[in-house]
Amino acid sequence: MTSGVADTKAVHPVSPIISASAADLFRSVSVIASVFVFGTGVLVIFGWVFNVEILKILYFSPIQMKANAAIAFVLTGLSLWFVQTKRASSRTRLISRSCASVIALIGLLTLFEYLFNLDIGIDQALFVDMPDTAITSNAGRMAPFTAVDFVLIGIALFLIDVEVRWRLRPSQFIAIVMGLIALISLMGYIYGIASIYKLSLYNAMALHTAVAFLMASIGILTARPDKGIMIFLVRDSIGSVMARRLLIATLLTPLLIDIILVSGQMAGLYGVNHTLAIDDILLMFILMGIVLHTSIYLNKIDDQRKQAEEEIKNIARFPNDNPFPVIRIDRELNVTYINNASKLMLANLGFHYDGDSFIADAKWHDLITGALDSRQVKSVEIPVDGRVFHFTIAPIQDMDYVNLYGYDITQRKSAEKALNFEKNKLQNILNSMQDGIYIVNHEHKIEYANPVVIGEFGHYKDLKCFAYFHGLNSACPWCRNEEVFQEKKTIRWELTMPTTGKTYDIIDTPLTNQDGSISKMEIFRDITARKLMENDLRLFSQAIEETIDNVHIADMAGKIIYANKAAAKMTGYSFVESVGMDVVNLLKDRDFAKNVIIPAIYFKGAWEGEILCEKKDGTPYLGWLAATLFNNTDGKPIAMIGTLRDITEKKAIEEACRAAEQNMSALMNAITESVALMSSDGVFITVNDTFSRRFSKESSEIVGKSLKDILNPTLLESRNRHFNEVISTGKSVHFEDTRDEFNFSTNFYPVFNNNNEVSGVAMYADDVTLRKKYENDLLSSIKEKEVLMREVHHRVKNNLQIVAGLVGLQLNYVEDEKYRAMFVETRDRIKSIALVHDKLYRSKGLADVDLKIYISELAKELFSSFGIDKDAIELTLDVENVVIGVDIAVPCGLIINELFTNILKYAFPDKTMGVVTISIAATDGDKFEMVISDNGVGFPEDVNFRKTKSLGLHIVNLLVKQIGGTIELDNTQGSRFTIKFDHPQNQTDTSKGA
Asked: What does DSSP assign to residue 555?
């Protein structure tokens, strides 16, 4: 018996109360598991005895269960059946342990064979198996992991009733490990991942083997449900009830969902993305259901606890009738009052009777004096006969004693324990989720965040959600809390976070708190990779749909299941018409398609080549078909994919190009000059026959060779220099040389590619020996003619000077001034013409005259002829450097002679001073303008210079007309004659052409 306060908080171990119905349920599961395992082994042995393949290897499993494994499963079922408590006896235990020993021995011997690469003869002792190295290294031998699981089964069944420290049972932990191995292989079959149930070349576990192992693991765990770790599931407590409820949901729900979804995917009902999306949605909603159900259940328990506490307070107001203890104690620890409920437990509470009254043990002293001194209520919990009582030590106002109010909190402690258990379990579930989960109240303050959230965003203490996730100072503009808190709706949406750029799939659901307020639980998953994959798939699908090539997908029966836009445009069949149509109907030669193309795709995996096709309207066209076989993740062919391109036009172009190439080759060979094309590294690509003959070789002997292969070292150096110049500058190079008394003119031209880069050099060489001879003869002839022309111009000049001299001599005999002036004008005209021939005689070109020099000297002759004082009349010349022909020079000289003479005679009477200006300049690109002006008295107003009787002006008008020009007179300031005519060079060219 306990006394005093020192023991009030001691923990008294209490034997757990077992739920009989739960224990019986688990034992029934163990019996069912033993029958299942036994039956599986028997059926497979039957398959081996009678060679029923479907019993050895399931329809949808690629791997068979070996005979030794089937025998081991029969022994496992027997051993598990005999260890059941209802039939347990010394005899059944012996049978069970014997079977367990044989099971472990089979597994150990198989592992021994693998470890030491031996064959001890147990693999085919009973049945002969055909070797299949793709599944196992030896015929009839089970996989290594299968052998490991049988060793574990044998040990677990042998030790099923052995307990170690803390009442733990090794068999249960061994069964868990065994079950995990089997579950991993089973998940590999469910998800179609061969690398899980076939971890290496010789490690493959059959599907029914994995299921049987899983059932054996469950049977061993549930065979002793009231022992070891299983006791936590069969206790008669709130925690165990919740654990049993949640266990099935958490273990079976994801597995069943995945089996259904993956089966639908493999059946072609939907794709991988749809499977992931549906799986996520179902798991999230099931998780929310579990969370909400647990929350409601725990809230109910908490409400019951509060109600019990309130009832206890009400009862405490009536001490005598209170079923719980009420005791009054003064400072000296004297008990001054006890109610009826206290009398039976005073000794257990640490009170003793001194013969007169009850006195509290000294260990109560600190609690009572502390409450009296501080005037604060104290409390303590004390276990009494397997129950727990909570005592409140309340000091009475203005009194020196306290009242002890006690009430039984045994159920509340159990409820609190269950509540804490459920809370911890719920938190463990949330913490183990791979999705981010957090809870936030209506003030945006975060109340909970699981490790996924903390790992990505850090700790959330005292932070609001908008600051924690986004670094904002106020609620996020995209937040949908209003729908959750006000409308109490569960919503699902997506958000791309501005700070990280990640995209999340979000589910927000309202949670009702104990005080009636609403909090929000948000579950989010990072779907950035999935969104990127969806975008990539969308782009890929769009690329296929928009490609210019015809794309068809057909199933293994040859029926079209997809056709893109190009296919509809090319064949004339719409998408609706194409789907379900036999793919061979697109080809003209259907027998060839059936007998050659389709078999090649089936057995070789691909076919490619030209094929004659037929459109819907019967129009034939030539196509290039590339078809391949498409396999699923298991390597099983499921479809044929074909791309078809219409090459009718291409073939026509190829034929045209081939004909053009032949024509070009013929044209090149017909050319008498040497033609060759070289690559950028100096290798000959093609040459014509003339080029080949020049080197006394065939074209085939030169093509593919370089310059150094056909040229001597002397020529090679110069040709390489010219070749490299073309490659580096991109400009053509021309050069001439003499070889063996023959003259050659050669051009290297750059050849450019599409990027405007020099990709080669074209060479054109011509034998110009005869042309050179003709040119030399022509130059000799030209030189002779030049000598003759110079002599002609010289003699014409001399003769004109003689004539001018004779006219000058005649002047000495002319006394009449009128006739004398006529002779002077005639002499000057002859001198101007003679001056032209003198310039032609002295110029380099015998047909061109330097206009500026000619006019300058002509003006000097006229000044000299009239005896004009150069200081009195100033001559200004503004003539561009122009070389003109004699047919223009002579008229221009005569025009200047006549107008200049007229100015000297009439513009400056009485020898007044003045300025004469002569200018010639180009205008309007192909015109010339010649101006002769003075600042004298000007031309008489009453005289029309175009119809005057003056011989000089008449000559001017005739000469202007001769050179195809126009003449205008301006009398505003002196006289200004403007003559415009065609560019002298143009006229010269025209005359040459004529």
From this structure: E
Query: Comparing C-alpha atoms, which of 388, 392, 390, 391 is closest to residue 410?
Result: 388
Q: Which helix (H) or strand (E) holds 749?
A: strand 742-752
Task: Of 618, 660, 596, give the one whose Cα is nearest residue 610.
Answer: 596
Please, what sign has the CA dihedral across residues 496, 501, 505, 509? negative
CB distance 521 to 509 below 8 Å: yes
Q: Which two tokens stand for residue 40?
A: 């599986």
| Of 46, 88, 91, the residue nearest 65 (C-alpha) | 46
Q: What torsion, rounded to 10 degrees, do the Cα atoms 795, 796, 801, 804 define?
A: 150
Instruction: Supply 894's token pair.
Output: 């005569």
| Phi, psi (degrees; rounded to nearest 5) at 762 | -100, 135
Question: Are β-strands 914-923 and 873-879 bridged in parallel, bridged antiparallel, or unpaired?
Answer: parallel
Do residues 34 and 81 touch, judged by C-beta distance below 8 A?
A: yes
**Per-residue pLDDT, 940:** 82
Torsion region of 698: left, alpha or beta (phi above 0 gives left; psi -120 to 50 gives alpha): beta
Q: What's the angle, vertex CA 353, arms to CA 351 and CA 356, rounded to 5?
A: 135
Mean pLDDT, to the nearest integer, of 782-808?
A: 66
How far is it, in rounded angstroms, from Cα 930 to Cα 854?
14
Kindly state the helix (H) or strand (E) to which residue 528 belongs, with its residue range: helix 528-546
How far apart are alpha carbons 465 and 449 in whole angstroms?
11
Q: Whole-angstrom Cα distance, residue 18 to residue 29?
A: 17
d(CA 898, CA 904): 10
Compute the average pLDDT of residues 496-500: 82
From residue 851, give the alpha-carbon distance in Å to each of 855, 861, 921, 977: 6, 15, 11, 18
- Mean pLDDT to the nearest integer, 847-867: 73
**How far is Cα of residue 303 from the mean position of the Cα atoms in its chain?**
57
Distance CA 841, CA 747 (A): 39
Interatomic CA distance for residues 67 and 140, integer angstroms: 7
Q: pLDDT higher for 406 or 415? A: 406
Q: What is the 3-state secondary structure (H, E, C) of 823-866?
A: HHHHHHHHHHHHHHHHHHHHCCCCCEEEHHHHHHHHHHHHHHHH
What is the rounded average pLDDT of the residues 869-873? Answer: 74
How many angstroms separate the Cα of 612 from the Cα of each of 573, 616, 628, 643?
17, 14, 19, 14
pLDDT of res. 990: 38
Q: How far is CA 774 from CA 142, 743, 777, 825, 955, in A?
A: 102, 12, 5, 49, 46
Q: Which two tokens stand for residue 81?
A: 């059946």
Q: Tell me how many degrees the CA angle 833-836-841 measures, rounded to the nearest 5.
A: 130
543, with CB counted inside 10 A (0-12, 13-18, 19+), is: exposed
pLDDT in tens, 670-724: 676 788 888 888 888 888 878 877 777 887 788 888 877 878 777 777 788 888 8
Q: How far is CA 723 from the centre of its chain?
A: 45
Name the amino acid, one letter, at 624. W
pLDDT at position 416: 75
Q: What is the mean pLDDT of residues 16-33?
A: 82
- pLDDT in the model for residue 80: 92
Residue 762 neighbours by CB under 8 Å, 6+ apart: 675, 676, 677, 678, 748, 749, 750, 751
State the Cα–Cα distance between residues 38 and 100, nearest whole angstrom: 14
Angle at 660 between CA 657 and CA 664, to 5 degrees: 135
State the Cα–Cα distance between residues 301 and 305, nearest whole angstrom.
6
pLDDT class of 77 with cuts at 50, 70, 90 = very high
